[in-house]
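Researcher: Quick sanity check before group meeting.
Model: Go ahead. Protein one:
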Amino acid sequence: MADRVAVVTGAGSGIGRAVVFGLAASGARVVAADLDDAAAAATAGAQDGIVAHQVDVGDAAAVDALRDRVLAEFGTPSIVVTAAGWDRTAPFVAATEEFARRVVDVNYLGHVWVARAFLPAMIEARGGALVTIASDAGRVGSSGETVYAGAKGGVIALTKSLARETARYGIRVNCVSPGPTDTPLFAAQAEPLKEALIKAIPFRRLARPEEVAAAVQFFASDAASFITGQVLSVSGGLTMAG
């Protein structure tokens, strides 16, 4: 991936951070974007070939501003990874309007705004790879994460529709769908829920962020040159029947 430009949202921690490191190690110049400016800067400072930018993916204008900076500083990216995500576990009936809107803003509309911002330049360049990060909650459902699961299910449908629309321009759009992963988001869950999920995984452990990042890197690479509109579950077998 030498000399390719990549943009990764949610790059301050967890899966997004691992994706940034994997792409940079492969030679890409990576823009690490995150709501937490300090976390993005820490990611950028950990490895060569990475620059940090702050962005709230739930704010369409902020995403457009990020696009303008990227195009001005680096040109059209050939890889865009939408990894930003946020959630809290709670019964669906306890979801407030504020909570539900924030979940949808980050976990669904964030993908919409990033795709809308960068795809026109990629279409003009006649190529590139967009990789979304959904969740197996969006494939099979997840108790206590109903609004989040709905948003992530939307990301899967968005991915497939974008793949159909952009294939004529040589753009590939694919989705990585993680199961329970060792991230700060998972660490914030209640202990009984964490223990139950780990026991339910056939491998009896969580995914490591770099294992999910490896799937992202595959979709972003030339090895996936004839693959688009696909959803790859990285769940240790948890949802193999889903």
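Researcher: Fine. The other one?
Model: Protein two, sequence then structure:
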Amino acid sequence: MAVADEFRQRARATWSAGDWDSFSRLVTPVGTLILDRVGIEPAVDLLDVGTGSGGNVAIPAAQRGAKVVGVDVTPELFEHARRRAADAGVEIEWIEGDAQQLPFEDASFDRVISTFGAMFAPDHTRAAAELVRVCRPGGRIAMATWANDGFAGELFKLTGSFMPPAPPGVEPPPLWGVEAHVAEVFGAAGVSPSLTRETVDFDFTSVEDAVQQYAADFGPFVVARGVLEPQGRWDDFIEAFRDLVLRFNPARDGTARIRSDYFVITVDP
């Protein structure tokens, strides 16, 4: 099996585990910031890469008047996406596909957006090239990627210390949190990205609430539990995660407000 096919199957299994539709509420503010940053005029053609259940970018963009296509490697999430879109009174086309082989013609969209989606493609240079390829001249590309030294970046490192390594040929997602790497992969596509650093807060009623919600709803944790619990290592993993939450929680009132830094990457082809 080709690396891309194997990784696609793993990604689909991971993100269909847990309850991403519920968990994705944490990054909703990022979608709002991205849409404000790129500008959404009525009737612009917008592609949301790694759309998930659509609540972060696709549906809010359609509510602003954009003609939206959402693409994701995990079509199981489209059941929630269709329900959300119907509740919002918008029409969106949902298509199964992955970021490094987008099923669209060249220059198909005015806006190409990916919030924490395309960064999980195994070949970063191919993913960047695909985002550029499907964007029209004069359009705009925007990505949100987790900063390597922020909460999510540290979570990648923690998970990597417990879980088996990725297959050979798979570039780790945290590289998208390194400015030099972002410049390199987009530079290979003939464009120059601009980066700004932003912060989003993940609010929970308590540290224990954060730990329990991650364990129950976050797909990578659900998959990790299936691997680590039979080895007797799940409790150690969760305890290390609890320490990580405490490290990034500035709240002193018993709640948990996890501060997570990310990059907004914009490209004007």
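Researcher: One line on it for the slide.
Model: Strands lie at 45-49, 67-72, 93-96, 109-115, 135-146, 194-204, 256-267.
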